[in-house]
Amino acid sequence: MNQPDTSGNCSFSDVDKLMRTLQLAVHTPTFLLGLLLNLLAIRSFSTFLKKRWPDYAATSIYMINLAVFDLLLVLSLPFKVALSQVRPPFPSLCTLVECLYFISMYGSVFTICFISLDRFLAIQYPLLVSRLRSPGKIFGICCTIWALVWAGSVPIYSFHGTVEKYTCFHNMSDGTWSAKVFFPLEVFGFLLPMGIMGFCSSRSIHILLRRRDRTQDWVQQRACIWTIAASLAVFVVSFLPVHLGFFLQFLVRNGFIVECRAKQSISLFLQLSMCFSNVNCCLDVFCYYFVIKEFRMDIMAHRPSRVQLVLQDTTISRG
């Protein structure tokens, strides 16, 4: 999402050449690993959904929704690599790929945010949430997330405006970087979800640590703390640099930063941050791992005998 290759005497060809090579090196393993890991995650949580309905339905629905968004991002990567190097045969193809990419990114942001909020409410108000946390309502929330990100993708259709020569994810029109487009995206697409997630995660961890000496299920609650911490770490590492890059590029495109080397550095930083933020579709596997571990620990805690524990755990592992 950088500016055209040249701006007066300021050339971005070296940056773009470097990024074409780097994108290929990063996106190839990301595509292969992301495809495998997210398909496995969908399969695992679907198994819990079928065999443990409705005990683990709410969290499983959220996790399946997150894995589907990650899978969409994975599937967009080969097209992103190809279309960022050559001009698309028809503009609608570029728009479609850009839509899939940004819908999956912000779909993941909102889903992770709601997972964090849901977990905090379940920890802080367990009796109240047990009545409100029905599978139907969670499914409705996920559908709302899909509706929001699709509605929010409308500005993508004018990303390139009247620009004649462009490649996908490059050469965005000036209107794309206007304040009325940029600030709602930055505030509602990232800052607000990050604020909610940071508050919910810190409060949840604080509550669980405070209960450490008053609970017999500390091992299970420790797994819950790891789940919360992993989700927050993945969120910050994946999305903070890219939105900082968006902000810096906004300053460039609106004339606040005019020095050539600064503009080249910002272009490189933005493309690097977008490139490595795509690894998020693989990093989410840490969240899946801790959630599945938490599920299994809870299942084992409620099993009547050691023999049944072994047999049932084997069944779940085989899917």
UniProtKB/TrEMBL annotation:
Enumerate the InterPro entries for this protein: GPCR_Rhodpsn, GPCR_Rhodpsn_7TM
TM regions (residue ranges): 24-45, 57-79, 99-117, 138-161, 181-202, 223-248, 268-291
Q: List the GO terms this entry assigns under cellular component, sorted alphabetically.
A: plasma membrane
| GO BP of this protein | bone resorption; negative regulation of osteoclast differentiation; phospholipase C-activating G protein-coupled receptor signaling pathway; positive regulation of ERK1 and ERK2 cascade; positive regulation of Rho protein signal transduction
Q: Report any Pfam family annotated for this entry.
A: 7tm_1
The alphabetized UniProt keywords are:
Cell membrane, G-protein coupled receptor, Glycoprotein, Membrane, Receptor, Transducer, Transmembrane, Transmembrane helix
What PANTHER family does the entry give?
A: G-PROTEIN COUPLED RECEPTOR (PTHR24232), G-PROTEIN COUPLED RECEPTOR 55 (PTHR24232:SF56)
Q: What is this protein called?
A: G protein-coupled receptor 55
